[in-house]
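Write out the 3D structure for:
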Amino acid sequence: MAEYRFLTTWLLEADRERVWQAIFEYERWPEWWPGVVATEHLEDGNEAGIGQLGRYVWRSRLPYEVAFEVRTTRVERPHLLEGRASGDLAGTGRWRLWSEDRTTAVTYEWNVRTTKSWMNAVAPFARRIFEVNHDWVMRSGGEGLARHLEARLIAMD
């Protein structure tokens, strides 16, 4: 299996609570995040959201979809949200939010491996394409979130 480690940063001129809420409400991502084809709430978690299970279907510039489920493993509102993915991608994702005044910094760590045999077979020569594809999806998410919150996207990496 091919392994990938991604780190994305969004810097938004927006209140952290509003940013947190938009990220936490993953069922609404298709409304503002280009590339998110569908989300589905499969299971509830506890009152904090730990244990909830959601299904995500993504499509980017490349002509294929990636589908996986994420079980929420950690919630520290409004600072940290963590989950474990399984499906076409398997691994962990971690959202972290910091704020000062009305500026919120968001980082997303996505440490996954591909489970589809064709993705693993082409990984030696397509790795860079998959990485650029991921970057496009995350850039689109930062821009979409800024539009959704009617906020300014100050920086993105």
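The first strand starts at residue 3 and ends at 13.
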